[in-house]
DNA sequence: GTCTAATATGATCTGATGTTATGAAGCTGG
DNA sequence: CCAGCTTCATAACATCAGATCATATTAGAC
């Protein structure tokens, strides 16, 4: 014999409020409805839940015990409702976000930290990858958002792309590097220094190749490759090596990493760093929250970058 | 927005069983029914509970979290069902039982102890009282059973009475009392001894008066009155006092109390000690259990009493 | 691709639950 | 002790969730 949880909740409310009429009101139901429901429940149970012939309806011992269980069921049910509400508002949920390693480590993770102080109940699972793999994960539901550099024209038809920043790369070196003071840098100037390269299959590596080619340098000596941002920063800080990094990464981490961008114009890839999502019927609401947050934060970052660029230009 | 607990339970089962079809089977429902229920729940929640386009149906993160709550709700609901079952079988419940003090203390409480080792989940609230008060309590639902001496003809019309023992009273004294060895006792023999009397409003007190009158003794000296059985036993044991007690009480407690019945025939009230209940539509099932138990136990006791009486007669 | 098993949908019926109106019965205060 | 108030139960009806069987659809596997 299975009881109806709803019935038990109603019973609990009646007992709590001390009467059927009050209970019905508290439940937002009509008094006859509640009365009949209790009659039905008593029939099924085969035992009285209320003392017979008592007018402010008083529960029997069995009624009281069942009401206690009903109250606990009600609490769980209410918790479920709260969970759903919180989820729908994007305040709860699990987000699986992946992106190109350097940008994730250098920029996005900072903002994830900020986001989580605001929405502590949103779990974020971060991982790394490049476009093809990430697109596959998005399609098969293994990922909620990819943060990748992408050309506007090459956004897959079944996906949405929200640009965050232009894919502006710079040559970076340690703050005290001989080249960082120079106003103009020639190809010959950078000739002596070894290079640190991102993994060979990363877009950043191709950027590096293209950038150097654009200033006429066809081959370059790679002294270290494949590390994450933390390794790259360590190596750069401890040597005179050079590398290519997104300017946003240099800008954000320079306080703590001691990196600087060389004043050497290199070709910018015609891509935008942005948020890629698969067009499903419904995306997790927390994803919208996160996307909006990230867009706002990155816009602020971009404004700071632009501001400094103007100041720098003005100063010469 | 209120969710249906039943829906959450179904969700929990689907997640537990790893698929809708299996879940439906485990729930004893048809597959289409469960499918539509989940569709309805998703509509109400406004978010998917299952990964879209996955064939062994797999829950989303929200689905999993709600399923956890559903499982807990299910556990509570099942506990409610068990409680009802246990109650209906008389294995759970609260019984409020009252009776005349001496008989309750001397006989019934012993059997209550035995009953509770068999049915530990039946709470028994014992109290004391005489007929009028107990009948009132039975009628207004403050009491489940009264154990009283009653004449068959004076059972109220709205009550049921199940006799347990004849209301056989004896004159009791301590085991070593001068009168306990005598085969025949005369009025003159008992003259010197003081009496212990039950409370003046108790039926036992009236029995005492009647009994003494029946053997020609019109007045008697009361040295102590009003105590419970424990006091009476103490006083009797420490003096040569006499009193009137139900034979069953003397029989059951003599081992530990050191009381004996004098071999003096006194008039027996034409009453039976028995169980009185108010005829309600439904009595607590545990009450039936207890009533049956008490009837059986007292029948055994009566058999022992009869057996001993025969042996004693034969020996002279 | 094709086949199979899992899920969704259509059509239909039953029963629970909601409503308003009204009857019955306990409680209360003079 | 009776009148009147309050509380609960019942009647009559409307609605919708939820059950069924039959069948369409589709994801996964070989």
UniProtKB/TrEMBL annotation, chains A, B:
Protein name: LysR family transcriptional regulator
Keyword Magnesium in record: no
CC annotations in GO: protein-DNA complex
Keywords: DNA-binding, Transcription, Transcription regulation
Similarity section: Belongs to the LysR transcriptional regulatory family.
Record-level Gene Ontology MF annotations: DNA binding; DNA-binding transcription factor activity
InterPro entries in alphabetical order: LysR_HTH_N, LysR_subst-bd, WH-like_DNA-bd_sf, WH_DNA-bd_sf
Ranges of residues in domain HTH lysR-type: 3-60
Pfam family name, one: HTH_1
The keyword Transcription is assigned to this record: yes
Gene3D superfamilies: 3.40.190.290, Winged helix-like DNA-binding domain superfamily/Winged helix DNA-binding domain
Matching SUPFAM superfamilies: Periplasmic binding protein-like II, Winged helix' DNA-binding domain
Domain of life: Bacteria
